[in-house]
Amino acid sequence: MIKGIGLDIVELDRINKSIKRNERFLQRILTEEERGILADLHQEARRVEFVAGRFAAKEAFSKAAGTGIGKLSFRHINVLKNDQGAPILFAEGYEDTRIWVSITHGKDHAIAQVILEEK
């Protein structure tokens, strides 16, 4: 049974400006594992897409969970990749919930959708 659905869209330019303006932005948004993946990306555009996609996925998760960012921080939510490269999302306190996540990028935006399902 579906427990929640969340959707978020983020402007790539806004994320790029946040990265350049505030050194701590990446520390606040990304987990240590996500920062490790980011370190392997060398093209600026791909790095911005990566961060924007994670930001959107975490916002979408918080909407699906009904908590918003606040009760959960961005660092309680970890968006990694499975063996095929598709995103997978883990969140503290939601180990008994099946979490579906999809992230897409356009020229100007990153969009993510999250569905929470009872296991």
TrEMBL record:
<comment type="function">
    <text>Transfers the 4'-phosphopantetheine moiety from coenzyme A to a Ser of acyl-carrier-protein.</text>
</comment>
<dbReference type="InterPro" id="IPR008278">
    <property type="entry name" value="4-PPantetheinyl_Trfase_dom"/>
</dbReference>
<keyword id="KW-0460">Magnesium</keyword>
<keyword id="KW-0443">Lipid metabolism</keyword>
<dbReference type="InterPro" id="IPR002582">
    <property type="entry name" value="ACPS"/>
</dbReference>
<protein>
    <recommendedName>
        <fullName>Holo-[acyl-carrier-protein] synthase</fullName>
        <ecNumber>2.7.8.7</ecNumber>
    </recommendedName>
</protein>
<dbReference type="InterPro" id="IPR004568">
    <property type="entry name" value="Ppantetheine-prot_Trfase_dom"/>
</dbReference>
<keyword id="KW-0808">Transferase</keyword>
<dbReference type="Pfam" id="PF01648">
    <property type="entry name" value="ACPS"/>
</dbReference>
<keyword id="KW-0479">Metal-binding</keyword>
<keyword id="KW-0275">Fatty acid biosynthesis</keyword>
<comment type="similarity">
    <text>Belongs to the P-Pant transferase superfamily. AcpS family.</text>
</comment>
<keyword id="KW-0444">Lipid biosynthesis</keyword>
<dbReference type="GO" id="GO:0008897">
    <property type="term" value="F:holo-[acyl-carrier-protein] synthase activity"/>
</dbReference>
<keyword id="KW-0276">Fatty acid metabolism</keyword>
<feature type="binding site">
    <location>
        <position position="59"/>
    </location>
    <ligand>
        <name>Mg(2+)</name>
    </ligand>
</feature>
<dbReference type="InterPro" id="IPR037143">
    <property type="entry name" value="4-PPantetheinyl_Trfase_dom_sf"/>
</dbReference>
<feature type="binding site">
    <location>
        <position position="8"/>
    </location>
    <ligand>
        <name>Mg(2+)</name>
    </ligand>
</feature>
<feature type="domain" description="4'-phosphopantetheinyl transferase">
    <location>
        <begin position="4"/>
        <end position="113"/>
    </location>
</feature>
<keyword id="KW-0963">Cytoplasm</keyword>
